[in-house]
Amino acid sequence: MGRVAPVERPELRWPGKATDVVEAVAHVPELVVEQPGVSDNVLIIAENGAALRALGRSSRADLLAESLVKLAYLDPPYNTGNRFDHYDDAMHSAHWLDDLRERLLSLKKIMHTDGSIWLHLDDSEQHHGRCLMDEVFGREAFVATVIWQRRTSRDNRTAFSISHDYIHVYAPAGPKRWKQVRNGLADNGAFANPDNDPRGPWRSVPLSAQAGHATASQFYTITTPRGLALEPPPGRCWTYTASRFQELVEEGRVYWPKGGLGRPRLKRFEGEVTGLAPSTLWLADEVGDNAAAKKELLRSVGGDRPFDTPKPESLMERIIHVATDPGDLVLDPYLGSGTTALVAARMSRRWVGVEEQEFTVRNIAVPRLEAGGAGGFALVVAGS
Predict the structure, then answer these.
(1) What are the structural domains, with CATH classification, of the chain?
(2) 3-class DSSP state of 137
(3) What is the Rg, in whole angstroms, of the alpha carbon atoms belonging to the chain?
(4) Whole-model pTM over 0.90
(5) What are the pLDDT digits (tens) for 291-324?
(6) C-alpha dihedral over 287, 291, 292, 297, to 10 degrees?
(7) How far apart are CA 76 and CA 119, in angstroms?
């Protein structure tokens, strides 16, 4: 047999795409501290491609406090063809792809091994964005695509009323490893203690599972306290082997509904619950929408329309909670109105934000951070 050729990673191609990004010829600005901070938090006024290159150099410890990024949230221009007061959202698709690829490659160098990258887009370029993420981080790093309900009102001017955005989540360590370090969502299910169990409140969960991957040891007859013989439900098996089930009975972990005639259920105590796996559908009544985000911004900085496309604080709270722990470093290279930095500070995370538009920083982001009690931060500008 001949040698098997190595499998090449799928690649998105477009006219004018560079075969390599050569950092040696790219300008790396000096980042100058204009206003020292009393914490590790940093707000950088600079073009974000140049800022990320600067952060990726060996001297980055001065700004990243010798840490790597645990969460990178990217909310780039969606390339909708529109023009907003604070940024241009109309680029040739090839230029948009070049810009995003360069930033992802720079970002890859400063990510923590247990970190995650969240790329927020709409239908205009999300398909290209995911292909780029596959190319830079590998398809094996893909975790999920979150659908966020950005609006609840209907727009009858278009063929379809667009209600959602996409957030592509990638973890360099892969989804299995990242699941071990990410945080679950709060479990608000009801717990009670009807039998006064000294271990505290509990609730019951089924003791059967889908039979697709079952072993022979998970199929057996269970006899209830009232003498009723039970087999697993059709298409299902018992969760545990017979020996493990008997151990649970002896430990008082099995609940028998219907006075001992029902199928057994496992008692799960409140202290054992570690959080629920995040779903991929995030509705506005859970994490806010665009309308809520604009109201939050108006309350903090005033004005008629201070920023066109802010994100709701509740959305960022969920992302930061899932992806990080207190003390971890959060990076937002498209900081805009400052939502990510504000929420990260409130949640005791360190943050670095990059925004190119000086007017946006000084008139929106900084006043919002100061009004929101975000604490101290260094203000850094790009030198020559």
Answers:
(1) 30-186+276-382 (3.40.50.150), 202-272 (no CATH)
(2) helix
(3) 26
(4) no
(5) 998 888 888 776 665 667 789 999 999 999 999 9
(6) 130
(7) 8
Q: Tens digit of pLDDT for each residue in 220-273? A: 999 999 999 999 999 999 999 999 999 999 999 999 999 899 999 999 998 888
Residue 173 has pLDDT above 90, yes or no: yes
Task: List Cβ neighbours of 131 (8 Å cut-off, separation of 6 or more).
Answer: 10, 12
Assign 381 to helix, strand or coil: strand
Q: In the structure encoding, which two tokens stand for residue 145, read together?
A: 């695509």
Q: Are 360 and 330 in contact (CB under 8 A)?
A: no
Residue 268 near residue 239, CB atoms below 8 Å: no
Question: For position 298, what pLDDT does the model report?
Answer: 83
Please report which helix (H) or strand (E) contains residue 198, including its range: none
Q: How confident is the model at residue 384 (pLDDT cuts 50, 70, 90)?
A: low
d(CA 168, CA 121): 8
Per DSSP (E only), the strands in 276-316 are: 281-282
Q: Which of 35, 31, 34 is nearest to 63 (CA)?
A: 31
DSSP state of 333: S
